[in-house]
Specification:
Blueprint lengths: L3 H13 L5 E5 L5 H10 L3 E5 L1 H9 L3 H22 L8 H15 L2 E8 L19 E11 L2 E2 L2 E7 L4 H20 L6 H14 L16 E3 L6 E5 L12 E4 L3 E3 L3 E3 L3 E6 L2 E4 L13
Parallel strand pairs: 1-2
Antiparallel strand pairs: 3-4, 4-5, 4-6, 7-8, 9-12, 10-11, 12-13
Helix pairs in contact: 1-2, 4-5, 6-7
Length: about 290
């Protein structure tokens, strides 16, 4: 954890470099304790956002970075397979999360999965409300692991037991939206075009419009790398052109409050020839792994 002592060390380092005044840029994840500490230790120095520099540097991943993210994705799929194999009547969402966490540890990595059942799967960030699994429930697991500092982020949605026509139809719609996002991810296209393509599929099916629920209540995807969520984003208004080396999640969720939610999430990286997913997409509601 960062402390005022760390800020003091930074201030002393600046002094050693004969930097006593001016502005220094800080990455957006820098804790407030550091900003406040530098202000106290070196009051003539101004702290400013370095996001225009750091975001630009981190947006484009090298082949080595992409290889680490690929490994993180592979580990996550293995942990998810182990976790979903433990589903049983009456288990809680916390039990499922713990089982996936144990699978990560057995594989030699640190990872986490948020689990949601039934109507609670409609909440994009889950619910702490106690849940017990029963026949016909949607099961949704989301999150990932870290490999040498690089992140994965995958969501799988299945049904425990009998699958209703409604569940299958909405799941298939979600998969079409996810496919539409990938089809729109072309080098040079604006990031917002990917969001628009996925959202159009969902709205054309009678959901929404826009960010309204039932429908897609959030952006289609976020950047990913050293942080699970980082620049840049697949969202309306973001005209940043897609470029080789950029990495994103593809997760155009369909949330139906009071009923269930379907989210399929696979991350991808841009190549000269278009997107390439780190994980194979789910083929069907009863086949979570490609």
């Amino acid at each position: 954890m960062w402390t005022a002592a760390d800020a003091g060390a930074i201030a002393r380092g600046l002094k050693d470099l004969s930097v006593a005044t001016g502005a220094i840029g800080l990455e957006e994840q820098t804790p407030f304790a550091i900003v406040a500490g530098i202000g106290k230790e070196a009051p003539a120095i101004t702290c400013a956002s370095a996001t225009p520099v750091t975001a630009g540097c981190r947006m484009i991943k090298s082949p080595a970075e992409i290889a680490l993210m690929q490994h993180a994705s592979d580990v996550t799929i293995a942990a998810y397979k182990a976790g979903l194999a433990t589903l049983h009547e009456g288990m809680t969402q916390n039990e499922l999360s713990a089982n996936i966490g144990a699978a990560y540890r057995a594989l030699g990595y640190s990872g986490f999965a948020a689990a949601s059942f039934g109507e609670y799967s409609a909440f994009p960030h889950g619910s702490i409300t106690p849940q017990r699994l029963k026949d016909g429930d949607i099961v949704q697991i989301d999150d990932g692991c870290t490999v040498e500092g690089y992140q994965s982020d995958i969501t799988r949605t299945v049904v425990f037991g009998r699958i209703s026509k409604r569940q299958r139809d909405v799941w298939n719609l979600e998969r079409r939206a996810q496919d539409a996002a990938l089809a729109a991810a072309k080098v040079g296209a604006p990031c917002e075009a990917v969001d628009a393509a996925a959202r159009k599929v969902i709205v054309d099916a009678g959901f929404g419009p826009g960010y309204k629920v039932p429908g897609l209540p959030h952006r289609t995807g976020h950047g990913i790398g050293l942080d699970g969520h980082e620049w840049t984003y697949l969202v309306k208004g973001n005209k940043t052109p897609l470029a080789p080396g950029m990495c994103f999640s593809d997760e155009p969720m369909i949330a139906i409050y009071g009923e269930f939610g379907i989210r399929l999430e696979d991350c991808f990286y841009m190549t000269e020839n278009g997107p390439r997913t780190f994980s194979k997409q789910s083929p069907a509601i009863d086949q979570p792994f490609g």
